[in-house]
Amino acid sequence: MEGERDALLNKNKALLARSVSHAQDELKSFRTWLKWMCVDQSDGWTAFLSWSVFVVLAIVVPCLSHFLLACSDCDSRHSRPYDTIVQLSLSTLAGLSFICLSHFVRKYGLRRFLFLDKLCDESETVRKGYTNQLNRSLKILFIFVVPCFTVECAYKIWWYSSGGTRIPFLGNVILSDTVACILELCSWLYRTVVFFLVCSLFRLICYLQILRLQDFAQVFQVDSDVESVLREHLRIRRHLRIISHRYRAFILFSLIIITASQFASLLMTTRSTANLNIYKTGELALCSVSLLAGLMILLRSATRITHKAQAVTCLAAKWHVCATIDSFDTTEAETPVSRVPVNQVFPVTSDESDADDVGDEEDELDNTKLVPSYAYNTISFQKRQALVTYFENNRAGVTIYGFMLDRTSLHTIFGIELSLVLWLLGKTIGIS
């Protein structure tokens, strides 16, 4: 008895040790990345350095680039008529991302913000899946940023090397152009990475909740009691509310800023006097691609987790139906009646061929498999019905100030955006 107790205590200590932050834990790469990007605010000195770098790279350098390097008398290749939209869009989103990230890290700490302090309460499957995704998150960040930065480098190097500016503020034209080019590239990289970093963290947090929902779906495959199922679902709903509360302002303002940026770009490029070519609009197109990619990460992560959370209702209803049918079959077995075999009415097809068509869309939450009878044989009809009713009236998901961010919301956003685009095109180029 004492041996089992000691083993249980040692196991609990090992799990609790994961919730304590230390220098060599799974967040080591994230902390290193935050320090290199100068967004670490763990003490007074790093906070001062972080804000100083932000002011220089997100405000000062873009302003100097726009007002001092704007070439009004340049040829058609080197003029930058859309630089205002590019600089305002990147700096505004970088400012929003930096303020939100600073608030998150300062108020919650990186470990608590990523829900790693609660990971000791999860199953081994959830812990391993989340740790693997944590290690992949920075790679995903590079996948989005590196191609755009490569194109930006090529454009800036061409612009400066081909005579875009001739302001020898360091006494030498070549040295001045080199320094200005490096500063502009650092500013662009800093603003873009800060925005994508916050988007990637949101995607990572949503992935944890998806893992938990998939693990939660296992309760319908085993003999579970209704109270434990209800408690676990309430815990997941609470975490989803926490995520919504933390990220709602960032998602809303990102959507507004990016929408305003795209409409301003559309208005400028569809004017009758606009002279469009790759040299003038290339940087504007690159900025739009970067911003829309970040917005896609946010909306896709939010709608995906909402879809998975709402799929629990379908799973519970299927669980209830299978249990009800099984109970009626057991009752009616004492009075045999003549019935047509189900296989003759609804022919059974091969599950393997269907699985190939579905691909990765099916998981523990979304599938067409029947629930085994041992998963509900000890639960009464009234309890199952009450649980299904609870799921139907308490849909979980990511919300923005009370509005559920699901696929229907995406359709609504798309419809509004399309209407505004058509209205704007009707005012500029006469589309009716």
TrEMBL record:
<keyword id="KW-0472">Membrane</keyword>
<keyword id="KW-0812">Transmembrane</keyword>
<feature type="transmembrane region" description="Helical">
    <location>
        <begin position="278"/>
        <end position="299"/>
    </location>
</feature>
<protein>
    <recommendedName>
        <fullName>Extracellular ligand-gated ion channel</fullName>
    </recommendedName>
</protein>
<feature type="transmembrane region" description="Helical">
    <location>
        <begin position="45"/>
        <end position="69"/>
    </location>
</feature>
<feature type="transmembrane region" description="Helical">
    <location>
        <begin position="188"/>
        <end position="208"/>
    </location>
</feature>
<feature type="transmembrane region" description="Helical">
    <location>
        <begin position="140"/>
        <end position="160"/>
    </location>
</feature>
<keyword id="KW-1133">Transmembrane helix</keyword>
<dbReference type="InterPro" id="IPR021924">
    <property type="entry name" value="DUF3537"/>
</dbReference>
<feature type="transmembrane region" description="Helical">
    <location>
        <begin position="247"/>
        <end position="266"/>
    </location>
</feature>
<feature type="transmembrane region" description="Helical">
    <location>
        <begin position="84"/>
        <end position="105"/>
    </location>
</feature>
<dbReference type="Pfam" id="PF12056">
    <property type="entry name" value="DUF3537"/>
</dbReference>
